[in-house]
Design a protein that fits this description.
Blueprint lengths: L1 H14 L4 H18 L11 H15 L3 H24 L2
Subcellular location: Membrane
GO biological process, one term: transmembrane transport
Organism: Streptomyces capitiformicae
């Protein structure tokens, strides 16, 4: 799994305009949380190309070429989507 996951997260971070190491730091907590809280042993958890492209499409115009602002906006978007998913799951 790590053989394809590591280059994949680094590439998707690059697609989003972030340094490749940002992909590595983003996937570690996500995998750990899913291992603790996930409900399926068969589900594959990892980045998706469509998510990277949608994030880049939303964040790039707002960041105006500033890498620090890009990283901040990307993190804010990820946290917001996470909270929305958690709120929806809590309502079930």
């Amino acid at each position: 799994m790590a053989a394809y996951l590591v280059p994949q997260v680094m590439a998707y971070a690059g697609v989003d305009g972030l340094p490749p190491v940002a992909g590595l730091w983003a996937i570690l907590p996500a995998l750990a949380l899913y291992a603790l809280l996930g409900s399926s042993r068969l589900l594959s958890v990892g980045p998706e190309s469509m998510t990277a492209l949608m994030t880049a499409t939303v964040v790039a115009p707002l960041a105006a070429g500033d890498p620090a602002r890009y990283a901040t906006l990307t993190a804010a978007l990820a946290v917001t989507v996470g909270w929305c998913c958690a709120a929806r799951a809590g309502g079930r």
